[in-house]
Structures are given as C-alpha cells and as structure tokens.
C-alpha cells in the first residue's frame, strides 16, 4: 500500500495506463475500495480518496460542507490525473466526483475518460435523502443499521462509534443539504449505477442524462443502496467500469 497525499493506493502499479479514482459514500473511508484493487485489470491502478477524520487522517477535522471537501481533494487531485483516469463515486462519493468534474472543467484541466455515478440522484435534486443527521446519536446509529453499509460489529462498538459518529453525521448533513447551483452539460462519457432495491427511481436515475452532452449508460445490480458491498456482483461492476474507452 502507498499513500499519495489524500489518496490511498492499495496495489501500486507503476506500469498502469489508467488511474481509477474512487470516492466513498457518506461516513465511508478509502478501505471501502480495498477489495477492488486485486480484481482490476493489469493496466488500471486504483486510488481511493481518504476523507479527513478517518484512518491515517483521523486527527484532522471532518469536512463540514461540500466546499471543504473540494478544497481538500483539490490539493492532490492534479498529481494523480497526469495520465488517463476514471472517476467513480458511490452515493455522497458520486456528488464529490461530479463536483471534481465541474472544477476540472472550470480550470480547463484534462477531463476523465469516464465518470461513474453510483447510488445517487442527479446533482440538482432537492430533498435527496431522509433527514437523519440531526438525530440523537443512538437514534442516528439505529438509522444507519436500517440503511446498511456499515458492519454491525462497528455500529455496535460504543467506543468506536463515539469517534466515528461526528464525521458520519457531518457527511450525512452534507448529502441532505446538497443541491448543485446549475446544470452543467459536460462532455464526459458516463455511467450511472443503482441497486435494484434502492429507493432511487428509474426517472431519478435518468435525470443524470441532463448533466452530460452524451446520454449516460444506466445499469442496475441486485441489492439495495450499498449494492457495491455485494461480493457476488463486484466483478461485474468492475468490468463495466473498466471496459472501453479505458481498455
């Protein structure tokens, strides 16, 4: 494993032709993508964003809004976009990936060869998530148990959750409040992924088509909001993400 600033590389590959840059869901960390590294094609290297407040960045204060995240990501993103790259984001991570593309476009920096948005409604969707960030800690943790995504042994660990709950709540608050200022028509090849049992409707998935000049591919997989944690479909997800134009 190596760490490139704010991005973790679990399987460094100096000969890789493409970087796959991944952003985790609200409350998640770079380790969400650890199982991916060994399953990628030989020409693709995974770099997973490690948000502040987690793992080796535990001592750093959590991001309180989307601009905090952009300021943080921007400090290192340019150093890992020196070769063709794919952006992938799940749930809150999809919103971060979209904001990164907007900023790359605004600064006239090279764009990704592909962007993949997973388990997220379109960027300008109001009321995109159930409001839970204001709840008392016990009630908030119970809501996390219902949503899935976090291992029960973590959610039931009182000492650990005392450390984790503040930044998880912060992330959920960011998602609850997020709404993009305007619609951008971006020239990026894109894919939208969803879980078949998630609450996001087909129409809401199709709204991602208003973001890009090319109509996105839309694919659904068995499972709910955290379908990417389903090992049985992970190879299919990775194959879809890494197929041409990235081969």
Q: What do you see in this structure?
A:
The chain is α/β, with parallel strands linked by helices and about 250 residues long. The chain has one domain (about 1-125, about 180-240): 3-Layer(aba) Sandwich (Rossmann fold). The protein is about 35% helix and about 15% strand. The chain has 8 helices and 8 strands. An 8-stranded mixed sheet has the order 1-2-4-3-5-6-7-8. Strand 7 (about 190-195), helix 7 and strand 8 (about 215-220) form a beta-alpha-beta unit. It is globular, with a radius of gyration of 17 Å. The model has no long low-confidence stretch (mean pLDDT about 90).
Task: Write out key terms for the chains shown.
single chain, 247 residues, Rossmann fold, 8-stranded mixed sheet, 8 helices, 8 strands, Thioesterase, AB_hydrolase_fold
Number of helices: 8
CATH fold name, please?
Rossmann fold
Approximate helicity band: 25-40%
Rg calculated over all Cα atoms: 17 Å
Biggest beta sheet summary: 8 strands, mixed
What distance lies between the first and last C-alpha atoms, to the nearest angstrom? Answer: 24 Å
Arrangement of strands in the largest sheet: 1-2-4-3-5-6-7-8
Share of β-strand residues: 15-25%
Structural class: alpha/beta
Shape: globular
Query: Kindly state the mean pLDDT as a whole number?
Result: 92
CATH class: Alpha Beta
- According to CATH, the homologous superfamily is Alpha/Beta hydrolase fold, catalytic domain
CATH architecture, by name, is 3-Layer(aba) Sandwich
Domain module count? 1
Low-confidence stretches: none
In sequence order, what are the helices and strands, one letter per element?
Answer: EEEHEHEHEHHHEHEH
Tell me the number of strands.
Answer: 8
Pfam families: Thioesterase (PF00975)
Protein name: Thioesterase
Family: Belongs to the thioesterase family.
Domain Thioesterase: 20-242
């Amino acid at each position: 494993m190596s760490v490139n600033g704010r991005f973790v590389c679990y399987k460094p590959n100096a000969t890789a032709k493409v970087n796959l840059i991944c952003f985790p869901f609200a409350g998640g960390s770079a380790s969400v993508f650890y199982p991916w590294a060994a399953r990628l094609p030989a020409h693709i290297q995974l770099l997973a964003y490690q948000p502040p407040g987690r793992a080796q960045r535990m001592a750093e204060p959590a991001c309180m809004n989307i601009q905090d995240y952009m300021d943080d990501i921007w400090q290192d993103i340019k150093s890992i976009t020196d070769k063709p790259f794919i952006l992938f984001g799940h749930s809150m991570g999809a919103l971060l990936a979209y904001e990164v593309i907007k900023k790359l476009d605004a600064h006239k920096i090279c764009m990704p060869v592909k962007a993949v948005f997973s388990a997220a409604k379109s960027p300008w969707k109001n009321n995109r998530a159930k409001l839970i960030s204001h709840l008392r800690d016990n009630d908030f943790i119970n809501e996390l148990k219902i949503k899935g995504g976090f291992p029960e042994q973590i959610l039931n660990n009182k000492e650990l959750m005392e450390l984790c709950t503040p930044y998880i709540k912060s992330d959920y608050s960011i998602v609850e409040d997020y709404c993009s200022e305007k619609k951008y028509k971006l020239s990026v090849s894109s894919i939208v992924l969803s879980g078949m049992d998630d609450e996001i409707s087909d129409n809401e998935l199709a709204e991602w088509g208003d973001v890009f000049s090319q109509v996105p591919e839309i694919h659904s997989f068995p499972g709910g909001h955290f379908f990417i944690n389903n090992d049985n479909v992970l190879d299919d997800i990775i194959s879809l993400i890494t197929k041409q134009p990235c081969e």
